[in-house]
Amino acid sequence: MSHGSARVTRRHLLQTTAVGAAAAVTGLINAPALIRAQGSPVKLGVLHPVSGALSYSGQQGRLGATIAIEEINAAGGIKALGGAKIEPTLGDAQSTPEGGNAEVEKMNSAGVAAIVGGYASSICLTASQTAARYDLPYVVDVGVADNIVTRFGVIAKTALDNLVTINDQAGKPAKTVMIVHEDSLFGSGLAKLLNAQLPERGFQVLETIAHPTPTRDFNNAVLKIKAQNPDLVIPANYYNEYVLLARTMQQQRVRQKGIYSVLGGAASSYKFVKEFPEAAQYIMDCNHWFDPRNPKALALKKKVEDRGQFYTYEVFMNHSCILLVADALERAGSAERAKIITALENSTFAGHVMPYGPTKFVNGQNQGAAPVNTQVLGNDIQVIFPQTFATAKPVFPMPPA
Known about the structure:
The chain has 401 residues and is an alpha/beta fold. The chain is built from twelve helices and 15 strands.
């Protein structure tokens, strides 16, 4: 995907990070260099919705980013820049696209070399478009709407392939589905894709229910689920709404054969499992996850938990985003935006903690990223697909309550 004339620019929306999300890496060929003294700090924008409806996920994303910056600085900074330390410029998108846009403007004025974050698809899209006007590298941590990440379709295909496998292995107990989704770019885009692809896989979509974020009451939605009694419920919501939907189903004793998510906002969350274990039990998700065999992933998990926080996907995705930018700075040997863009475009970064290959772009898409399937089993989240990384076998259908 390109912005503006290819003759004048080389602006690209690259799907990067070691996380399978996007990096809007932008820059005019003749963009002016940012002049900086050797060894002076490199300003890096860290943008998340740390207030408003998405504040929990935003705070988790900021946590992962700042831990990575602390680690890089403690290890001697950016060696290629004389040990320059990374200086975070923190921004709050306030859970709105307008808020994210305003923060990008501020960060550009402050002279940041690049920006990491965004979280919500609607924020990421607006913020990356604003960054493009300033030839400012923008690495998206999580946003997945197809306006941003064309590999979203690949993730969804993997999720549906795995769902078919799980259902087939269980004797095909699931035939009908209801989708409950938030109505912004993420949820609406996923619902549209699922409505197109689920029938091709042999599933009948009985109803698709949209809701705004935030939503404080899911009683009517759950009554509809109870009335139609689908075999599967597929939520596509951010954290708070996902938890509330699952809790409302539990409270109303609505128990389907399975709850199956694609990039679920709570299904892959230790916070959800600890606080509401009964509502979370047996929920499956296809999401980006850490490699349970990787010592670095486990060390980061311990560091986060020692701070009294949960090791959520927002943490390790943003941690990896910062490492990706640091790797680009090392290879570029410069904090000039155009050189960082080139370094990101040619990235072979493999220092992430997810079960991925190296970050490599083909037509702007990170070919190294791939989701895994998880399931809440007992008081833990287990990897159930692919078998290479699996720590448990799927439990499906859900056992009787």
